[in-house]
Design goal:
single chain; about 140 residues; mainly alpha
Length: about 140
């Protein structure tokens, strides 16, 4: 079972690796990822989680936090509120092996997505693929 994430630390601190500065001619996405790795994970907004997770950066620490966000906001979406499709898409689109390494988060995410009702077709397809990829018992 994964350990709780110290939200006061950056991904660089959590994984113990400092990336060099991005190349001078790097695109804005690359520059943003480098910058976000240096910020405390507890200060990241959902769209910033989505950006990092979508690039497979910091998954051991960010996926549990993202699942927590999704689980917390799912009941509001089911009741007619707004839901962060970008974060949901980035999370459910991870490879099945990622979820095999963190079955607790997979189980929590499954519970969250099962109550969502108004998803775009593209997000729904990814959610369905995520659910189909889960091992029995999750």
């Amino acid at each position: 079972m994964p350990q709780p994430v110290d939200r006061s630390k950056s991904l660089e601190q959590l994984d113990g690796r400092r990336w060099p500065d991005p190349p001078r001619d790097a695109i804005s996405m690359v520059k943003a990822v480098y910058e976000l790795r240096r910020r405390a994970v507890g200060t990241l907004e959902p769209h910033e989680h989505a950006r990092l997770i979508g690039q497979d950066v910091g998954l051991p620490w960010l996926l549990p936090l993202a699942v927590e966000i999704l689980r917390t906001t799912a009941p509001g979406q089911a009741a007619g509120g707004c839901y962060d499709d970008d974060l949901l898409y980035s999370v459910v689109a991870r490879r099945p092996e990622v979820w095999a390494d963190d079955p607790d988060s997979a189980r929590e995410l499954k519970g969250a997505v099962e109550i969502l009702t108004d998803l775009s077709r593209y997000v729904k397809e990814e959610v369905d693929s995520f659910l189909a990829s889960l091992p029995k018992g999750v």
